TrEMBL record:
MF annotations from Gene Ontology: DNA-binding transcription factor activity; sequence-specific DNA binding
Protein name (Swiss-Prot/TrEMBL): Helix-turn-helix transcriptional regulator
PROSITE patterns, per the entry: HTH_ARAC_FAMILY_2 (PS01124)
Keywords attached to this entry: DNA-binding, Transcription, Transcription regulation
SUPFAM superfamilies xref list: Homeodomain-like, Regulatory protein AraC
Species name: Paenibacillus arenilitoris
């Protein structure tokens, strides 16, 4: 099914929650009347739709559409976000989907799920992903749930803006993957490192974001970036440290934000990478050194 142009969408959030469920809790088999994001924070869930059965690990999200039967189930104690939304709605006011959810038979569950395409002006048509992992998605889910629960003045309008932001993030990530740009194959890992440079990323975690086995991920990463994930993380921390120093931020705050255990450890690593201590770098005239900025 083709959904038309993304620019014609006027989405509305119908329901949003962050919740927890014990093992072997299931939703379905069922049909939902709208769309749903199901994002696993911790634990694990499985999704069955047609002949496909996939695991949803922490940090992963599935997007379910109307008209296709599915079964969601937890395999262990699981914390998750659930956001129901409509792609097009004249009003941004939430319409709870519960009363329009229908049970599905085993035969309906076994039927191949419908695929949805959407036109992206300025880019190729896109088949909406049924499963993805985007580091920046979780903060958006948090804001959506908070806005929905708070129900403050004009909250439906705020929810519309947030779901549009989330959909844009999904579309951009999917387009990059579809185009198979060099950085697109490892884009989720690069985004993760840039957005959370202070986190102690493991190769397994970064590989999981891109859907690769750790060994294969390291090969692809090195080929596309020219260095291994560990060295790229160090380089990104150094780049962001330079920018923060030039902005006049306190060295203690920079070290803490970038995940260093102490100022001493940060200073030693910074000097190893740049040949200067943080204080020396800050005092250096940078007008003639644009490479030390954003570049």
């Amino acid at each position: 099914m083709h959904l038309g142009s993304l620019f014609d969408c006027s989405p509305a959030v119908n329901f949003a929650s962050r919740d927890a469920a014990g093992p072997n809790v299931q939703w379905g088999p069922r049909f939902i009347p709208d769309w749903q994001f199901f994002h696993v924070v911790s634990g694990e869930a499985v999704l069955q739709s047609g002949r496909s059965r996939c695991r949803i690990s922490p940090g992963e999200c599935v997007m379910l559409g109307p008209g296709s039967a599915h079964l969601l189930a937890t395999t262990k104690e699981t914390e998750y976000y659930s956001v129901h939304f409509a792609f097009r709605s004249d009003s941004p006011v939430p319409v709870h989907p519960a009363y329009l959810i229908r049970e599905a038979s085993s035969a309906q569950l076994a039927a191949e799920p419908e695929r949805f395409r959407i036109a992206i002006p300025g880019a190729a048509d896109l088949e909406l992903p049924s499963r993805f992992s985007i580091v920046l998605a979780e903060p958006l889910f948090t804001r959506i749930v908070k806005e929905y629960a708070g129900a403050h003045a004009a909250y439906p309008f705020a929810l519309r803006a947030l779901i549009m932001e989330l959909l844009t993030l999904v579309v951009r990530t999917a387009l990059r993957s579809q185009a198979e740009e060099p950085a697109g194959r490892i884009g989720p890992a690069l985004d993760a490192i840039r957005q959370q440079p202070g986190r102690k990323w493991t190769v397994r975690e970064l590989a999981g974001l891109c859907g690769y086995h750790p060994g294969h991920f390291s090969v692809v990463f090195n080929r596309e970036v020219g260095q291994n994930p560990k060295h790229y993380l160090i380089a990104e921390r150094t780049r962001q440290a330079k920018q923060a120093l030039l902005r006049g931020e306190a060295i203690e705050a920079i070290a803490d934000a970038l995940g260093y255990a102490s100022i001493h450890y940060f200073s030693n690593n910074f000097k190893k990478e740049t040949g200067l201590s943080p204080s020396e770098f800050r005092q250096r005239p940078h007008a003639a050194n644009p490479a030390d900025g954003d570049g």
